[in-house]
Amino acid sequence: MSESKHAKAPWYYVEKTNGGTGGVRNKGGFICFMSNVTSFDGQGQRYIDELQERIENAKLIARAPDILNELTAAIDALREVLPDLRAMHSLGILTGGEETINKIQTMVGGV
């Protein structure tokens, strides 16, 4: 796999400060800003829900480098076992699953 070109990890969520907008940043600066949530009379619960959703979205975005690393490791592991799965299937040890094995092979770039 080629080297990633995204901002270096770790990324973390920063709550809004000094009247500014919160977002996701690393030690080099902000990676993305989260939009402000507007408060309207009579919609207190909606406002609270949207604030919480905004925070959770930002935390998910902040985990992106970790998720990418975990998925890359999973794909590498699948590449290692795919030949064994094919062999087990051809010997009748692993029955069915041909479609799944083909999907795995397509996903990891074949082996």
Structure description:
By secondary structure, this protein is mainly alpha-helical. It has two domains: 12-62, no CATH class; 68-107, no CATH class. Helices cover 50% and strands 11% of the residues. It has helices at residues 44-62, 64-90, 98-107, and strands at 12-14, 23-26, 29-33. The longest helix has 27 residues, at 64-90.
How many E strands? 3
How many distinct helices? 3
Helix % is 40-55%
Residue windows where pLDDT falls under 50 for at least 5 positions: none
Averaged pLDDT = 82
In short:
The protein has three helices and three strands, in the order βββααα.
Question: Secondary structure elements and their pairing?
Answer:
Elements: E1 12-14, E2 23-26, E3 29-33, H1 44-62, H2 64-90, H3 98-107
Antiparallel strand pairs: 1-2, 2-3
Helix pairs in contact: 2-3
Keywords:
single chain; 3 strands; mainly alpha; 3-stranded antiparallel beta sheet; 50% helix; 111 residues; 2 domains; elongated
